[in-house]
Structures are given as C-alpha cells and as structure tokens.
Amino acid sequence: MYEYLPLLITGGIIGVFTLIFSVAYFVMQRKKSLLVYDRQMADTVIIRRLFAYAKPYWGKFLLALFFMILSVAYDLIAPLIVGYVEKLVSEDFTLPPLFTAVGLYASILLVSMVCTYLQAVLLQKTGQKIVSQLRMDTFTHIESLSHDQLNHIPVGKLVTRVSNDTAAISYFFTNVLVTLVKNIFVVIGVTGAMLALNYALTLMVLCFVPFVALFTVIFRRFSRKAHRKVSDATTDINTYLSENLSGMKITQIFNREDKKMEDFLLRSKKLQKAKYGRMFVFGIFRPMVYLLNISSVLFLFYLGSKGYIQDTTFLGQTITASLVVSFYMYISRFFQPVQALAEQFDQLQRSFASAEKIFSIMDIPLEVVDDEDAIELETVKGEIEFRDVWFAYEPDVWVLKGVSFQIEPGQTVAFVGSTGSGKTTILSLICRNYDIQKGQILIDGIDIRKIKISSLRRHF
Fold first, then answer.
1. Nearest to 131, CA basis, from 172, 180, 182, 179
2. How many whole angstroms separate alpha carbon 319 and alpha carbon 308?
3. What pLDDT, on the 0 to 100 scale, is given for residue 369?
C-alpha cells in the first residue's frame, strides 16, 4: 500500500479541486434560481438550428470527414512506430529496419498534413457560405419588422447581431465543429490502441476521464454566463456609439463632450470587467485539464520506473521500456483533444452565446404581415379612403380617433395641423408601416390588409 502513496496523494488533490468546483457550481445554480435572466436557449436547440443551415452542404462535410479520418491515422500509428524504434535501438540494431520505420513515419506525416490542409480549405469555404446565409436571413427578418418594433430595438444592437455575432458563429463551422468530431475519432482510436497494448495502463488513464467530463460540465455553465456578459456589454457599447456618433453635432453644440465621454468610459469598464471575468473562468479551466494530463503521465512514469523499467508489472501485466514510450505518446494524444477542446471551449461558448442572440432577434414575431388571401396589386388609380380609423402607438393613447375621409384619383390634398396631430401617422398607415386598431383603409376600394405588403409599397 505504501508504494502507491504518491498516487493516492495526487488523486486526493484532484478530488479536493473537484469538490471545490462542484460546490461553486451548485451555489451558482441556486443564485440562478433566485434571479430573473434574459431569454436563454439550450445548447441542443442552438445546435439543431445551426445544423439546419449546414444541411445543404452535408456532402462537403462528409468529404471533410474523410480527409479528417486520414489525418487521424498519424495520431494512431506514430506512437507504435516510435515504440518500435526504441525497441529496435535497445536490441540488435541495424540500419535497414530503422530506415523503413523512418520512411513510414514520414509518409504518414505527409499524408496527414495534406489531408489537414484540404480539410481546412473545404471547411473555410463551406463555413463562409453558411454564415453568409445566416447573416442574410437575419438582415431580411430585421427588414420585415414593423416601425413600432424597430423603434423599440436600438440600432447598435441590430448591427452587433448582423456583424459581430455572425462572425463568432463562423468559427464554429470552420474550426470548432470539425475539431470536435476529429477529437472524438482520436480519443476512440487512441483508447483502442492503448487497450491492445496494455489494458492495465489503459484503465489507469481512463480513471481521469470522469474528472475531465465533470470539469467540462461545471465550467460550461460558468463560461456560458461569462460570454453572455461580454456579449451584452459589447451590444451596449455598440448601441451607445451608434446613437452618439450620429448625434455628435448636437453633443458639440450643447458642449456635452465630457458627459458623453464619462458615459462611454462607464460602458468600456463594464466590458473590460466582463472580459476579465471570462479570462478568469478559462484561466482556471485550462490548467485543470492540463493537470489531469500531467498527472496521468506521472502515474505512467511512476509505475514504469518502479523496477527501473525491467519487467515491471502492474495488475498482472508487464511494463517494458518500449511500452512506456508508446504509452507516453498515446497519453499525449489522448489528452491533446481534450486540451484542444479546452483551448477552443472559449470560442465554442462564444459561438453559442452569439447564436442565442441572433435567434432571439429572428424569433421576434412580425407584427405587420400579409393575410393568407392577400393579392398582388397590379395597377393603382389612386383613390384613398379612411373609414372610422382608430390608431395608437401606445395602448389607449389614441393619435387618431374615428378618422374618415376620401381622396379621389388625381386630387391634391394637404394635411395641416400642429406637431403630434397625426399628419405623418396618416401617411405611415397608408403604406402599412403600422397596422390600425380599428376601422379600414382602402386603396381603390380594396382594404390594404388584403394587399401584399411588397405589392402595396411598390406603388408609392
């Protein structure tokens, strides 16, 4: 029992970290239940909606998957070749077998590099097409919003959704997605190769997998929250800039530069604090994954060096020098995908947070829409009629009350009144920038709600 004391101490340290992170996770869950959060989407919902955009390009993704599988062969075969070379050098050494092993290693490496390049080019092109379509759909939906809806959404927020957030999603398709799939293949392949070499050492390595999974689940929650804060702070600063740069002349006229600068600095510090919080989260997550990686390597070296690597046994199986070399490389390749995921976990959660923001905009129901039996308006004579029209921007705050009038084709009419009396409102209602609450508006005797919006506005 004493000889395994270093292993027990290392395991105890990992257990303490696990307990601390678990407590922090449950504390945050409790706080979440006591607070009211903005609309949130589950990862499964976000992935399903993102994959709907990728569906037309499934053939290219399959081709990229084929190149990926070929590139994975290097990760699986290379440790075996290196272990064979170590065994070759330690026994009766001759050059021809060494040249053969080196040539095979170089060939596999070259194939892996070519496949990785082709895969990257293919995914970049495909990913940009997907993101372009997502950006177009978002912009089209924004165009379809009513004037009332647009008045309640800051312009800077919409700009951030169409530009910044779609750019964040681009990385999901061009890098994160394929890396995730590749890492799954690598982990499965490396696990199979290690089991074939020595099942006892493989079980030792697999003991760390539950901790990796647990840390990933815990930090996923913290990172998602951190990315939401960064996204909200970025939106806030973009909104502020959009509103104040367009009104800079007014700011200068009234000598309000210092006050605007003070407001801008407050928003900048909020964004800085949010980014520091995100850095803190991943500053803990990455080292913890690396700790598990190093711990498994130390376990391997400790077990392999107990008998000076001379037929050491562990759980009834012999550990040789060549086996230690191969397992060292396999452990590196086993945790490398996990470490890569840890490195890209930041971008993965950023993509999900950005997708959540975009889909929240796209899920806004349209207030002014075509009726099912709406018609195309081919020609217009020009007769306009209001029949007992009532309209309010805000509930029960009527701008127009029972307004009725008729304008004949070719007739010139002037609307005269004080500010706020409804002159501009009447013109906006004719082309359905807003929908009225009561009454009817007719063009050539046809209720404008029975005319397709695009057809109606084309005649103005």
1. 172
2. 10
3. 85
d(CA 191, CA 202): 7
Q: How confident is the model at residue 269 (pLDDT cuts 50, 70, 90)?
A: very high
Residues in the chain: 460
Question: Quick count: other Cβ atoms within 10 Å of Cβ 151?
Answer: 9
Among candidate residues 379, 206, 224, 373, the one with its CA nearest the CA of residue 300: 206
Token pair for 335: 């945790």
- What letter does residue 3 receive in the DSSP assignment? G
pLDDT confidence of residue 171: 77
Residue with tokens 């997708």: 355
Please give the C-alpha separations between residue 293 and each of 74, 181, 200, 296, 297, in angstroms, as whole numbers.
Answer: 20, 20, 18, 5, 7
Residue 281 CA to chain centroid, in angstroms?
Answer: 17
DSSP annotation string for 28-62: HHHHHHHS-------HHHHHHHHHHHHGGGHHHHH
Token representation of residue 234: 């970025």
Element (H, E) at 446: strand 446-447
Angle between helices 58-90 and 95-144 (to 10 degrees): 160
Contact 222, 28 (CB under 8 A): yes
CA 327 to chain centre: 35
Cα three-residue angle 307-312-315, rounded to 5 degrees: 135
Q: Read off the pLDDT band of 71 (50, 70, 90).
A: confident
Give exposure, 268-300, as e/b (b: 16+ Cβ within 10 Å): eebbeebeeebeebbeebbebbebbbebbbebb
Report how far residue 423's alpha carbon sits from residue 79's, in angstroms, rounded to the nearest whole number. Answer: 79
Whole-Å CA distances, 319 to 205, 327, 338: 15, 10, 26
In our burial notation (b when 16+ CB lie closer than 10 A, e otherwise), range 20-59 reads ebeeebeeeeeeeeeeeeeeebeeeebeebbeebbeebee
279 close to 285: Cβ distance less than 8 angstroms: no
Radius of gyration of the chain (CA): 32
232 near 351, Cβ under 8 Å? no
Among the listed residues 137, 133, 81, 138, the one whose alpha carbon sits nearest the alpha carbon of residue 107: 81
